[in-house]
Specification:
about 20% strand; alpha+beta; 2 domains; DUF6606 domain-containing protein; five-stranded antiparallel sheet; 10 helices; globular; DUF6606
Length: about 290
Amino acid sequence: MALIQCTYNALLKFGDIADELSEPTQVATAIMRATFCVHKPLGKAIAVDEVELIETLRQLQGADNKESAVALHVREQNAGVLITRSDDALHFEAFELSPTNEAVNTTEGRLRRSFPGRAVAIRLDRVREPGFNEALAATLARMSAQPAPDTLPKAKKAKQLHDENRDTIHPKMVTELLYAFLLAVGSPLEGSRIWKNTREEVLWQNARLPWRRSPTWMLIRVTLQLAFTRSTQNLGRRADPYKTFMIFLMADVLQQCIDIEIRSDVLYSMTGKLSRRLNKLGSERESVRLV
């Protein structure tokens, strides 16, 4: 929840200073606001709030909410779902969040991944049928909080096969089962895709489970990149608005860390990361004030 809230706050600040990106920033801000509202704390993690999701689905179907969207972290299925309103239909796009151990270990250099995965378009008249919103919200809420059997790889221990909980969950309950359910009332969608090069690393020393990159952070990044890319694809811009905002977000977090007196070595690492981002953006860098 904190990651989503932090990103939302940064988008509000970014919208105040990036006049040329006001329209796509408003779109991204609305998505993050809706995303924050449909999730609730569940222990140390988050889950989809069924009641809030029903209300959000109804709002997406309204006449004044064209091009609105919401992102869902279906945590126990290792999946993200992006629901987008487009003219007379709702688009449902699902994708895996954390890659498998095999994909990470067998890849030299950065892991190249495509987002989103499977997608379905459902006409509004079908979505508005009695019971559809309630059934979909209940399914996604349960999937986000309840593990499903046979979604973890198996490992042989003491001559018996057990779930390998040090690996990641296969998102098939969302990308296959839910996809089939939605496809029965909709049609396949071939929308725009993005590629992300990720340096996936697993830190694991004297621990039962390894530390991994945050799947919630991956959901936020994919959602924002899709939102910025799709809302600016016809504007002919040289600079990448998504990369520009990510630099702003990192600078905003860095400023907050200075205010609360984070250790100097951590600040040094954060500054180095920000500098590399700026250098990588190069000539595409927008002339916006970062903090």
